Amino acid sequence: MAVRKTATRRTSRSQSKGPAPAPRVAILMGSASDWETMKPAAEALAQLGIASDVRVISAHRTPARHHAYVTAAEQRGIEVIIAGAGSAAHLAGVTAALTLLPVLGVPIDSSPLQGLDALLSTVQMPGGIPVGTLAIGKAGAKNAGLFAAAILARKDPAVRAALVRYRAKQTASVPERP
Ligand code: RP5
Hints:
Elements: E1 7-8, E2 25-29, H1 35-47, E3 52-56, H2 63-73, E4 80-86, H3 91-98, E5 103-108, H4 116-123, E6 132-133, H5 138-153, H6 157-172
Parallel strand pairs: 2-3, 2-4, 4-5, 5-6
Antiparallel strand pairs: 1-3
């Protein structure tokens, strides 16, 4: 599936009049091939009414694009960055080195090691530059979106209310018997 180049994703607010909300969360991935895995992050945010900016940015293949985007992100209104990458995944760590924004890393299972390499590369940051690391693959991407929302919810009652509704709906969907 093609990745939208400037994917300021519209949310439920897209039904209302006026301009699209500015993205508050950036979702970066090292390759367009990562998109299927990272999509749950964007979907979780959209469900909660949070606009995200989805970009293919590689720390090693597009280092200038990476540096320009990350160093301008806070000024542009981005509050949390999610970074997903596979193999020797340094995207989240290098991103965290370039910004004071919280960075959430998603190891992607795109290599012969099925994400174990990316997990260790992302989670084993030396002390000083933190990366909050989620699970390998789609579950990690979904949780990264929810984690980003939880960060925003500390200062945004509307996001907190959306998370309360999300949790209640999730609980109600669990059957008592198989
Ligand atoms: C990593 O290499 C990317 O994050 C991706 O998971 C992996 C393979 O990328 P492609 O060769 O499919 O572009 O940098």
